């Protein structure tokens, strides 16, 4: 059985919650990545910041990337997978929730051990399954929620 730890990119570099958005952008540029995990003490995962977050939630709102911290842009808890999770389950999760990156943690410490991106997935999938995966993750409809939505009342 292929596990998340087999397909992940190990050693994902974190941005600390008190570091600036400008620092996050520099790290993304140096590492040629579009997202960084936001970590607290002992590499405990707190969130993820993307290049898109920097543009939409900081720059486009007229905020100063040199003063806004990564922790300020972290919203909610990110979806994660455990290192020993079955790789096919990882694919299904990414497809269902239309996420392009998943942090990989060890349990029970909740310590970040790597990241799985679309590129990591692409390296190990047959072409037909890869096409199916990309179509699902990039679909224009919103991700399927696990919550029941209330009907609109007019």
Structure description:
It is a single chain. With 154 residues, the chain is of the alpha/beta class. It is built from 7 helices and 7 strands, in the order H-E-E-H-E-E-H-H-E-H-E-E-H-H. The chain has helices at 4-7, 21-31, 51-59, 70-73, 87-97, 118-124, 127-137, and strands at residues 9-10, 15-16, 35-39, 45-50, 81-82, 101-106, 111-117. The strands form 2 sheets. It has a 4-stranded mixed sheet with strand order 1-7-6-5. A 3-stranded mixed sheet has the order 2-3-4. Strand 5 (81-82), helix 5 (87-97) and strand 6 (101-106) form a beta-alpha-beta unit. Helix 5 runs parallel beside helix 7 (127-137). It is globular and about 45 Å long. The N and C termini lie far apart (51 Å).
Give the arrangement of secondary structure elements.
Blueprint: H1 4-7, E1 9-10, E2 15-16, H2 21-31, E3 35-39, E4 45-50, H3 51-59, H4 70-73, E5 81-82, H5 87-97, E6 101-106, E7 111-117, H6 118-124, H7 127-137
Parallel strand pairs: 2-3, 5-6
Antiparallel strand pairs: 1-7, 3-4, 6-7
Helix pairs in contact: 5-7
Strand order of the largest sheet: 1-7-6-5
Tell me the structural class: alpha/beta
Average pLDDT: 84
The low-pLDDT segments are 143-154
What is the overall shape? globular
- Rounded to the nearest angstrom, the distance between the terminal CA atoms is 51 Å
Output the keywords.
single chain; 154 residues; alpha/beta; 7 helices; 7 strands; 19% strand
């Amino acid at each position: 059985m292929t596990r998340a730890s087999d397909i992940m990119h190990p050693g994902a570099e974190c941005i600390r919650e008190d570091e600036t958005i400008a620092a996050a952008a520099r790290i993304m540029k140096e590492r040629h990545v579009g997202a960084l995990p936001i970590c607290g003490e002992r590499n405990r995962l707190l969130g993820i910041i993307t290049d898109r977050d920097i543009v939409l939630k900081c720059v486009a709102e007229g905020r100063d990337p040199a003063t806004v911290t990564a922790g300020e842009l972290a919203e909610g808890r990110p979806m994660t997978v455990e290192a020993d999770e079955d790789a096919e389950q990882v694919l299904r999760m990414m497809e269902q929730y239309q996420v392009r990156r998943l942090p990989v943690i060890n349990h029970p410490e909740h310590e970040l051990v790597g990241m799985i991106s679309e590129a990591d997935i692409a390296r190990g999938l047959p072409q037909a399954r890869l096409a199916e995966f990309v179509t699902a993750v990039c679909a224009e409809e919103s991700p399927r929620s696990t919550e029941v939505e209330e009907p609109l009342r007019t």
